[in-house]
Amino acid sequence: MGTLYWKLNDCWPGASWSSIDFFGRWKALHYAVKRSFADLLISFKETTDSTYIYIVSDRANTSKNSDSNLTNTSKNSESNLTNTSKNSDSNLTNTSEGVLSIQIISLSGKILFEKQLKILVEENSSRPYFKIDKTTITKFAQLTDLIITSSFTQNNGNVVENRYFYTSTKMLNLTKPKIAMVVNKIDGGYELTLKSDVFARAVRLSLGVESVSFDDNYFDLMPQKSKTVKIFTNSKIDHLIKKIKVESFYDFKHL
Questions:
Q1: What is the separation, in whole angstroms, between the first and last Cα of the chain?
Q2: Which tens digits make up the pLDDT trace of 216-235?
Q3: CA 143 to chain CA centroid, nearest Å
Q4: Which fold has domain 174-253?
Q5: Which CATH code is given to the segment(s) 41-167?
Q6: Which of these, 23, 17, 20, 24, lies nearest to 9 by C-alpha position?
């Protein structure tokens, strides 16, 4: 069972609401759909006085007694809402254990708040694992100058992450990012490693009209954190370095 949405692709070249263009190139929507349809993801819920950090698992429930070994712990204000397991592996065959990291950072990259929790995520579940009071957030900076970012590093090394803004992207006090790029040859294409000095929103990689494939695009770059993207193309490395464009929302806003 799956999900269909309108509309997937174009039957001729043109501007449209499809997620894949006529030439088979993914638009921003298709990369967003790929992230949203992951079987494990982080989401945020803002209320009048708090922000809750959820983890959603669409992984199948294959255990017969998934709740028998779970205990619940809870605190107030900046709250650890997570379930902890006494015997995590014996009856829970499709759960995810790991470390949930939460940061409030400025757009320039200054860490204003940081917390890490060891958690157990049950299969086929959606629940909050941490709560931050609004008073905790607003004491650091204006809401247009900060981001909540969260990542869940599983014991097997896989990482899921997401971030939350308290205003629309166009209202963020973004500054022009300086994005450095290193290119390495791999089978079938190249590996691009990118790093920005400040927060870079919706970074887009493109080679103009050339039909190439990226394993990720239209992504955020956190300050001073590297991100690796694979590009699949037959282009020579000199041509790639000359033609590739690296742009972010800041560039689109200031056209």
A1: 43
A2: 999 999 999 999 999 999 99
A3: 20
A4: Immunoglobulin-like (2.60.40)
A5: 2.60.40.10
A6: 20
